[in-house]
Each structure stands twice: as structure tokens, then as C-alpha cells.
TrEMBL record:
Annotated signal sequence range: none
Aminoacyl-transfer RNA synthetases class-II family profile domain span: 38-465
Protein name as catalogued: Proline--tRNA ligase
Positions in coiled-coil regions: none
Family: Belongs to the class-II aminoacyl-tRNA synthetase family. ProS type 1 subfamily.
Keywords: Aminoacyl-tRNA synthetase, ATP-binding, Cytoplasm, Ligase, Nucleotide-binding, Protein biosynthesis
Matches recorded under HAMAP family: Pro_tRNA_synth_type1
Domain notes: Consists of three domains: the N-terminal catalytic domain, the editing domain and the C-terminal anticodon-binding domain.
Entry EC number(s): 6.1.1.15
Quaternary structure and partners: Homodimer.
Subcellular localization, as worded in the UniProt entry: Cytoplasm
Enzyme class, broadest EC rank: ligase
Alphabetized PROSITE patterns for the sequence: AA_TRNA_LIGASE_II
Length: 567
């Protein structure tokens, strides 16, 4: 491809809205252009990388026996209402009405559609197991799109769905797709971890996220410093034994704490450590109020609360709702004297506290010398806090450390949750109707592209791995006005194309500095510069990744590049 004919609108300045490397570089190098907040055009270079990434995904998915299909983005509201997700997906689900006022959603995911499809078409166990997948744009109305391709309103996704008669069959498919995902991300050259995760709005049990390690990642990975244990921090269980002190239990005392609302303010005012306090948070859990109590230095994990209570929706109660429920606002909440219609759940660490402090459910007052069981009874004690660095690893090996990660893939064991709700069934081996058992497997394709750039770049531009680089070779002709350089560059261009190389040829009438800057920015690994030694039959080779440079005779160039690009 001649660069003079190709749409590569490079920029010299970093766009103001771009604040992470992948967003900056993809815009600067002319791979993408913003249309609206969270919505991007993919220009020729970006499309080439996407196509290579899609090829890797298709090869590994096809290798598992999965079959590619294409499902509509426009989905009837009735399907989502049948599954119950028309409401639970909340504002992220993009909804619209057609001219006849029929309600639709733009596909955020396709569990409902694929369950309906397979339920209509497959009626016998003899056609199972079956796995189908697609690569398609998805839509989610993000409240605050940011980070370019990492969090957008429209994005490219690969979603796969498996259908089974037995859970043993689902386990086999899950392991197979899990391995396929590892191969996909390995072929992309990524440094990633497969971590235990929460299924969220997808439903189901047993799920893993594939996290690309990156300081700009929005997810925190909890991992062991002595084993391969890794989990999303939301899902990492706390396996720690708490010992009560031998201090004598003191009489309960209500004290005034003016202007002290945060745990630290209360601790400073009453002269104790955070560990000696109790933190109470009020949640709305589906249709009821639940007070969750942790030790003062711990943070409530709402995902654990949701899973513990098998709830659909868990959200913080407003201050007015809290006042209406227990008679006090934020900063003065505690588990003593809570009305019977408010459930109290306490973390395991709370049970070991002796002579602690907590809010008195009276604005501006706290209790001192609070002792669980004597002064209040929790509905249950459970693991409801976030794991922390230095905690014992849940697998019993080493201690927990944290790292940031970008989620690029997610695999779920859905079970029969969608088939049950949509009535999708088949005849099993006994001739009885049975609902499908399902798995779901997603990869954020455009998000993966951005994650690759986060790991593969320098100050000059991108450093694409060979599996995803938009062109095999970048030919740069330094002076289009010199006949001998043009003759050599054209010859090299034709020869390499005939040898099967995918070549970008910079034939623009630009200064050498502009061409070199653009070449580094675009990030093609192998650059061939046609310059002053063209008349002698020599070109300069440079490896963008290693910085290696050497002169190579044009007659030797195809063999040299073959050995270099396939090394």
C-alpha cells in the first residue's frame, strides 16, 4: 500500500481528551477518530489490526469446534423482559422504540437472543454439545465513557455461547474455551492473568476474567506472592483467624462526638485506633434494608454482600433513606438498637472486637465499650470485606499482593438460568423435556487492541507485536525527488510484495524527519529506509522494537526479512 494513497491522518499534538497512552497514540497515529463520546471510527490502520486480532480469535475458536454465526444488534424488549434483565441491566441498556412504538434494545450482549435461537432450532440431545460465536459491535450507555477504546458506548466484542445436556459437558467446554482464551492472549503477546471473578449482571456461577496487567487498569487483581492464585479483588475470600483480646468487657457508654463522622475523625476524637472501631454502612438490597458492619480499618465489599444474600440489586441507601430506617444519618450508624426490619450482617473480624466503638444511631453520638453478642446480635457473621495486601492468600500459600489489570476476556458457567426463564428446552436421552445448560464466553476485541498498545509502546509511538502489526514492512523513501532512490524504493516495494510481504511504502513528498516520526508513531516493526546509499544498491534496515540497524543489499533483502520476521 502506498502511504500517499492511504488514510493515515497523523497528529503532532496529543488530543486534550486523551489521558492514557493507548488513547493518545491511537489518535495521534491515525488508527482511530472520535465521532462522539465513547464512539470511535476505525481508520485503515486500526481496521488492519482489528482484522488480525479477529483472525487469531477465529482460528482459536474454530479450533475448539465452535461455529461462527451473526445475530441482530436490534433485540425485542420482550426477550429481555423474559430474562428479567430489562430492569436489572439498568441505564446501561440502550433502549429505543420503532415507528410502531415497539420497544427494542441495542445488544449489550446476546444471551437472550442466542437462547431463543437455539431453543427454537435444536430439539434433541443428539445435537449437543454445541458452541456458537460471533464478532459484533455491542452497545452500552456508559455514564462516563473514558480511556478511549477501554470504556466506550459502542465496542467490538467476540461472544460465544455453549449449550449442553449435562454439567460435566459444560465443564469440558469451559476448560476448552478457557485454554483457547489463553492461547489467544498469548498469541497477542500480552502479559495477562486469568483471575477468579464475579458474574455480575450475567448471572451464573464459576467465572474467570482475563486481565492484562497495566497500571491504568480499572480492576485490582489480588494475587499470591508464592503461588499462581489470582482473583479480582471483589471475589478474593478472606481466610483469616481473628483472636479476641483478654481485656475485661467494660460497661456500654454513649458519648457525644460533635463534628466527628468519618472513622478517622471518630478514632481521633475518642483516642483509639481504626481497628478498635466498627464501621456501619446501610444498603438497599432488592426490596429491603441491610446494615453491614466491618472493623473500622476494613472496607465493605458490596459484591460479597450481593452474593451472600443472592440478591439482584445491591446499592447504597441514601442518607434520607438511612434516617428513615434507623433514625440517624451517615457517620452515626451502628448495630445497636436497629429496628427489626433492618437486617444486620457483620464481618468475621467484628465478632472478635472487645470494647469497640460504633455509631449510636443518634446524630452526633457514638457508643464506647461495644461488645458483640452482649450489646447487639448480628443476623449472621460472614466474609463481607475486601481482601487487603498482606492478608493470607486464600489458597494457603503466601500472602496477597495487588496489581492493576484491564479486563479483556470473561468466561462464565451460566447453568440453566436463561433457558429456565425463556423456556428453551430439548428432549434428553430419556425422552423428557430438559432446559439447556449453558456457558458464555466473551472477549472485548477493541478493548484488547487498546490493551496491547498499553503494554507495547514507547515515547515515540507503538511497538506492535508481529502477530498484530498492521504491515510486515515499512519502506521509507527519504527523497522522492532523487531518481535513484525512487527507482530502488519502487523495486524493493514490488519485490517484497511479490515475495508475500504486506508492505506500507512511504512515497509522500515529505521531509525525512516527518517520515521517521510517522514511522515510529505507527509502530511497524521492520523499517527499510531508502537513502543515500541507494545508488550502491544498499538500504538501511531498522527494527522498531530492538533499535537494531544495519545496511542490507537489495538483492539480499527478501531473505534477510524472511529470517528476521519469522525469527
Amino acid at each position: 500500500m502506498r502511504q500517499s494513497n492511504m488514510l493515515i491522518p497523523t497528529l503532532r499534538e496529543v488530543p486534550k481528551e486523551a489521558d492514557i497512552p493507548s488513547h493518545q497514540l491511537l489518535l495521534k497515529a491515525g488508527y482511530i477518530r472520535k465521532l462522539a463520546s465513547g464512539v470511535y471510527n476505525f481508520l485503515p490502520l486500526g481496521k488492519r489490526v482489528l482484522r488480525k486480532l479477529e483472525t487469531i480469535i477465529r482460528e482459536e475458536m474454530d479450533r475448539t469446534g465452535a461455529q461462527e454465526i451473526q445475530m441482530p444488534s436490534l433485540q425485542p424488549a420482550e426477550l429481555w423482559e423474559s430474562s428479567g434483565r430489562w430492569e436489572t441491566m439498568g441505564l446501561e441498556l440502550m433502549r429505543l422504540n420503532d415507528r410502531h412504538e415497539r420497544r427494542f434494545a441495542l445488544g449489550a450482549t446476546h444471551e437472550e437472543v442466542v437462547t431463543s435461537l437455539i431453543g427454537d432450532e435444536i430439539n434433541s440431545y443428539k445435537k449437543l454439545p454445541l458452541t456458537v460465536y460471533q464478532i459484533q459491535n455491542k452497545f452500552r450507555d456508559e455514564k462516563r465513557p473514558r480511556f478511549g477504546l477501554l470504556r466506550g458506548r459502542e465496542f467490538l466484542m467476540k461472544d460465544a455461547y455453549s449449550f449442553h445436556e449435562t454439567y460435566e459437558s459444560l465443564d469440558e467446554a469451559y476448560d476448552q474455551l478457557f485454554t483457547a482464551y489463553k492461547r489467544i492472549f498469548e498469541r497477542c503477546g500480552l502479559n495477562f492473568r486469568a483471575v477468579i471473578a464475579d458474574s455480575g449482571a450475567m448471572g451464573g456461577k464459576d467465572t474467570h476474567e482475563f486481565m492484562v496487567l497495566s497500571d491504568i487498569g480499572e480492576d485490582t487483581i489480588a494475587y499470591s506472592d508464592e503461588s499462581d492464585y489470582a482473583a479480582n479483588v471483589e471475589m478474593a475470600p478472606v481466610h483469616q483467624t481473628y483472636e479476641s483480646s483478654n481485656d475485661e468487657a467494660m460497661p456500654l457508654e454513649k458519648v457525644e462526638t460533635p463534628n466527628a463522622k468519618t472513622m478517622q475523625e471518630v478514632a481521633d476524637y475518642l483516642d483509639h485506633t481504626l481497628q478498635e472501631g466498627m464501621k456501619a454502612i446501610m444498603f438497599k438490597v432488592d426490596d429491603r434494608f441491610v446494615m453491614v458492619v466491618t472493623r473500622g480499618d476494613h472496607e465493605v465489599n458490596d459484591v460479597k454482600v450481593k452474593n451472600l444474600l443472592d440478591a439482584n440489586i445491591v446499592e447504597l441507601a441514601t442518607e434520607q433513606e438511612t434516617i428513615d430506617a434507623v433514625g440517624a444519618g451517615f457517620g452515626s450508624l451502628g448495630p445497636i438498637g436497629v429496628p427489626d426490619d433492618v437486617e444486620v450482617i457483620a464481618d468475621h473480624a467484628v465478632k472478635a472486637l472487645v470494647n469497640a466503638t460504633c455509631g449510636a444511631n443518634d446524630n452526633g453520638y457514638h457508643y464506647r465499650n461495644v461488645n458483640p453478642e452482649r450489646d447487639f446480635s448480628a443476623t449472621q457473621y460472614a466474609d463481607v470485606r475486601f481482601i487487603e495486601e498482606g492478608d493470607p492468600s486464600p489458597d494457603g500459600h503466601g500472602t496477597i499482593q495487588f496489581a492493576k489489570g484491564i479486563e479483556v476476556g470473561h468466561v462464565f458457567k451460566l447453568g440453566s438460568i436463561y433457558a429456565d426463564k425463556l423456556g428453551a428446552s430439548f428432549l434428553n436421552q430419556e425422552g423428557r423435556a430438559q432446559h439447556y445448560i449453558m456457558g458464555c464466553y466473551g472477549i472485548g476485541v477493541s478493548r484488547t487492541l487498546a490493551a496491547v498498545v498499553e503494554q507495547f509502546h514507547d515515547e515515540q509511538g507503538m511497538l506492535w507485536p508481529d502477530s498484530l502489526v498492521p504491515f510486515d514492512v515499512h519502506i521509507v523513501n527519504l527523497n522522492m525527488k532523487k531518481d535513484e532512490q525512487v527507482t530502488v524504493a519502487e523495486s524493493v516495494y514490488d519485490t517484497l510484495q511479490h515475495q508475500g510481504f504486506d508492505v506500507l511504502y512511504d512515497d509522500r513528498p515529505e521531509r525525512a524527519g516527518v517520515k521517521f516520526n510517522d514511522s515510529d508513531l505507527i509502530g511497524i516493526t521492520h523499517r527499510v529506509t531508502v537513502g543515500k546509499r541507494a545508488g550502491e544498491g544498499y538500504v538501511e534496515y531498522k527494527n522498531r522494537q530492538t533499535g537494531e540497524q544495519q545496511d542490507v543489499h537489495v538483492d539480499d533483502l527478501p531473505a534477510f526479512l524472511s529470517s528476521t520476521t519469522h525469527a
